[in-house]
């Protein structure tokens, strides 16, 4: 489209009010909102004009609509990356003023000249100019707001961009009614709704130029100071190198491409798709508006609803879901259901869009931000408009068909088939993007979903590690310590470096805390104090022992981890398990085990194996039964990360079950088998390795 706007994830309401309280940003936002409204009106006007040229012919209608979007595609192919370099090299404010004035002039000329050839030529020229305006605007926003409010700024920018589309659809319908009424009452009145929409669009650009004129807070391009030292070709190459080397940016761009495959198919085929379902212009307006209504909903509320999820995971997952809803849209030939599906589809696309722009704005340095945004926007524009142009062509080639099966007629049309293909492609791209960007490769998305439902996920995600982390959990007397030793022995026989540890007591500090927590001499401890003491031990344990070993590429096996706190202090002490989980997650910086082995044993059997009981082991049988049930519940909610083993089996059978599962872990094959120059005694803080 003629405009694209960046974004982040969810800001709280006070943050949104805070960013709108910044005078410079507020002025720019008002300009963007009005310009976006006019731009959507212009798009509706030009596509409506193309539809009129078809004369009711199905193929001609698709080709005519494709022609409008092809006119918007051509400039992106040739000028997109170059525009970003210019945005970085010249005064961004003046660049925005000049481009807005030029665009206003072109849109005024379209209804005056009244020539369809000029319509396409002017559209191409407007797109050329827009390619210079967009990166200048995108690169300026981070300079107008504090970094902590960038997410909020991008969110409300996207709302201005896409939230105005449904309003434009309503306004376009209103203009048609008003102009029709005036033409009937006043014979000399010759301005139709298309002309009116184009004049309003021109006025929006003029308003944008006037606003930019007063925004002296916008700095010059960050690269302008040394523009004479760096050539255009070299600057462009640097932007491409940054994109190609950054895994996050690569994943973002791949995902954005998928998002616009889905959105482009719906927009490009909306008119013919509605016609295939028996709808007219009004239904077309409703479906068109529904896409952007959903997009606005996703941008406004999605980040808040999914606040607990990692941005990287949320980006790919929301794109995949949007693609699946696009497939569903193609398979359900009902206009009412289609509108509802499109709203949901647009919502997940909005979440994807706002999340992607947030990450990009925070990851990219200011001196290459303009060219990076331009490169991304150019590729997105090419993808979007290519889909908008190609999808009607495919639909026209497929045409309308009807098949009789016994006494039932089944119809399938080109629009639905093309949307189905686009949905499959978008879903696959979403999966690829998710795999590129997921920040915790050893933790399944289903684990995050289940934890989010319980309120235990949070927005903090720990950094990925090179090693393999295995935890053993279970009730008293279940044989954890024995199986930890056996697994360690087997892994070492396979050539791996293994660190065996435990909680509490895996560090010198932990040994003291273990004595406090388990000794009868301590007496009663408040359940909350007990939970905090375990969390303190765990925080130090992870910081000084577990994470260093994982960073060194070793395998860490721990006898108990934070699931024990969830079970013992959560279910056992009848605290809220979710609260206990959040404490441990914070203490460990969300370091989750790759595999958690739960040795399941009836509490009565396990306690009978104990010859001497510590403070926790001496608790009543009901306490230990609650613990057992909590372990089992945790495993049910995330079967990918948990292995439940019947601890009443023989020692050899238990060992075989555990080794079989560990051997199947993909992460194990990535752990190098080589000798280490140092070992870390259990319970001691790691010493620096010799190089």
Characterise the protein shown here.
With 691 residues, this protein is mainly alpha-helical. It has two domains: 13-439, Growth Hormone, Chain: A, CATH 1.20.1250; 465-669, 3-Layer(aba) Sandwich (Rossmann fold), CATH 3.40.50.300. Helix content is 69%, strand content 6%. It is built from 24 helices and seven strands. It has helices at residues 13-20, 23-53, 58-89, 92-113, 116-144, 150-185, 193-213, 232-245, 247-276, 281-305, 311-331, 335-363, 366-398, 414-437, 445-453, 480-493, 508-518, 527-551, 562-572, 577-588, 603-608, 621-637, 651-663, 666-669, and strands at 400-405, 408-413, 468-474, 498-502, 555-559, 595-600, 642-646. The strands form two sheets. It has a five-stranded parallel sheet, sandwiched between helices. Strands 1-2 form a two-stranded antiparallel ribbon. Strand 1 and strand 2 form a beta hairpin. Helix 2 runs antiparallel to helix 7, helix 9 runs antiparallel to helix 12 and helix 19 (562-572) packs antiparallel against helix 20 (577-588). The longest helix has 36 residues, at 150-185. The protein is elongated. The two termini are 55 Å apart. The relative contact order is 0.10. Residues 1-16, 223-233, 458-463 and 676-691 have low confidence and may be disordered.
